[in-house]
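FIELD: query
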Amino acid sequence: MESTPGGSGDRPADPTATNASAVPEPPRALIPALIFIALVVAAIGSLGAPLVPSVAAAEGVSLAAAQWTLTITLLVGAVATPLLGRLGDGPRRREVVLATLATATAGGLLTALPLGFTPLLLGRALQGVGLGLPPLMIAVARDTFDGPRRRSIVSLLSVTTVAGVGIGYPVAGAITQYAGLRSAYATGAGVTALALLAAVLLVPPSPPRPKHRLDALGAVLLGACLSGLLFAISEAAGTTISPATLLGIVIASLFIALLWVRHELRTPHPLVDLRLLRNRSVLAADLTVLLGGASIYLLTALIIRLVQTPTAAGYGFGSTVIVAGSMLVPMSALSFAASRATPALTRHITSAACLPLGCTLLLTASLIFAITRTHLWELYTVMAISGLGIGTIFAAIPGLIIRAVPATETGSALGFNQVLRTIGFSIGSALSALILQAKTPTGQALPTADGYTTAALVGAGLVLATITLTAALRPRHSAASVS
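FIELD: result
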């Protein structure tokens, strides 16, 4: 087994065997509470992309401006997630969880009140802090449970946010259509408030751990880098910003990223311990969520747009936002099923082998979509296959990371993985828009049908690259030693 950079090289073969006798039996309600708290991310996400047209109409702003109700949430979430992960690795994780939920609840209340567009954006920004909750919940599960039970809970928590979106999208669309935009936001605020109550009652304190000074400079540099990159990605699909300006933002962001890497490798207690990337499992997990995440979101964005495209285009279905949201239901249901099956699967194959297996399912879904998409049932089938791949990948990744890093690095490592997932999703969304825009004839509002084929093949290429990399980085140890 590989040694862990920055941590102990003599980790037990079963990472869940961590002195379970010293851990008191947790309350029965803790598991559903952790899952419900993690679902806050799905609730926050569901109030983004599906509601952009409704925000534009209700607030009297352009679609480009309304898109910021999604972009600002992703930006804040990308900056907050690694910071929360590092804070959660310290002795005050419970306080960090409560403060995060309180901030997201306050943001939800701002979005629910009819105060105008600017307070709505502020509320969505505050809600973005809540995107850092899943790594914290996984860290709680690691410290609280042991054995196969821990593996099952961690796998479920990892896929909860994806599975929850399948429920959240159509629910948010239905509430908006029948009860109004602010009612949808009020529902999201209510979900977050209930999660805060659950955390107050059930989330346990952290085990005794040393307290280290927070890497403030690392947080500032990473925040500046991610903000620039995600802003450029989100704006790349055609805005009033010139290509030269976007290129300048990207170059500046990459330069800041180099400064951040240099700083993190030199500081004794970094925000993200990049030395952990020397471990093949950690590197494979991070590359998978970056490239595979881009493919996942690219395919999802294509299908949601295709379903709502008017039939006059010659290839669309002209369906409502509710029907478009329902496309995510089979993805969510099958990703949940796959996440429950993956812990049992890893008794027969390595966790690392689950990554190319899940990617192969994603590749199959992309190729089917590229070949045939003339009936809604075909699109539901594509999303179902995609869900199996997503569930397999996201259920296996936490186990790979948890096994490879010390307990004091769990939240930080998982938080960084979550950030890469967000970046991957943003890249996929931007790629779908860019390709379809490039395939839109001059003077026309809609792309040609082959634009969807091209985009699907690009997604398939991303998955092939992911399969190649994960196979090359597969750890060289037996299936019996992998959780």
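FIELD: remark
The first helix runs from residue 30 to 46.
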